[in-house]
Write a structure and sequence with these properties.
With 202 residues, the protein is mainly alpha-helical. The protein has eight helices and four strands, in the order αβααβααβααβα. The protein has a single domain, classed as Rossmann fold. α3 packs parallel to α5. The chain is globular and about 45 Å long. It starts with a helix and ends in a 20-residue tail after the last helix.
């Protein structure tokens, strides 16, 4: 997606969660890689939110103020799916904490890429190294997270569910078409393809 936006000359920044700042990268290492640590659900939630608060303050906020599109690999919706529904925390208590971490900032669009669990597992095992904390969880946890995403796509505003089956090129084309339709002021029309940006000078 970043290459597509580059080709279309769309000013943007790319961020990942947790991470994207010095503090966020330290938290990422603790949460994902330190599988030897016993991290309970509440601690996991608070570390994720600390990383997000730093990212919003140091990267996302300044980028938006500069008029740039922010392409994020995960944001608050993932916290609801993983830490609330996946870990069994009360969503009603997680929502206010999310607002503190983001300062009330909400994405214009969430894109949830849906894939059958078996195919997702096959992709995960191809070309991957040691699994992280979440990838090491059992099948029951993955079912809870997927079910949560499907429910959130129905209930939360600004969430679009896309089929992630097919080749990378096919999935990429679906995402490009969705972004062009939903955010026409920021991204080129899907019919223009990468490298061409439809302009309206009127």
């Amino acid at each position: 997606m970043a290459a597509w936006l580059d080709a279309a000359e769309v000013p943007h920044v790319v961020v990942r969660e947790p991470g994207g700042t010095p503090l966020g990268e330290v938290i990422r290492d603790l949460v994902l890689k330190r599988t030897d640590l016993d991290v309970g659900p509440a601690s996991e939630l608070l570390m994720m939110l600390a990383a997000r608060a730093a990212l919003v303050r140091d990267v996302v906020g300044p980028a938006l103020e500069a008029g740039k599109l922010v392409l994020a690999d995960r944001f608050a919706l993932s916290t609801l799916a993983y830490q609330a529904y996946g870990r069994g925390l009360d969503p009603a208590r997680v929502h206010p904490a999310l607002d503190i971490a983001t300062g009330g900032l909400r994405p214009d669009l969430y894109v949830v890429l849906d894939l059958p669990l078996r195919e997702a597992a096959e992709r995960r095992h191809r070309g991957r190294g040691r699994p992280d904390r979440f990838e090491s969880e059992g099948e029951a946890f993955r079912h809870k997270v997927r079910d949560a995403y499907l429910a959130l796509a129905q209930d939360e505003p600004g969430v679009e569910l896309l089929d992630a089956q097919g080749t990378p090129e096919e999935v990429h084309a679906r995402i490009c078409g969705l972004l062009a339709a939903r955010l026409p002021a920021f991204v080129p029309a899907a019919s223009g393809g990468p490298g061409r940006r439809e302009r309206d000078d009127g």
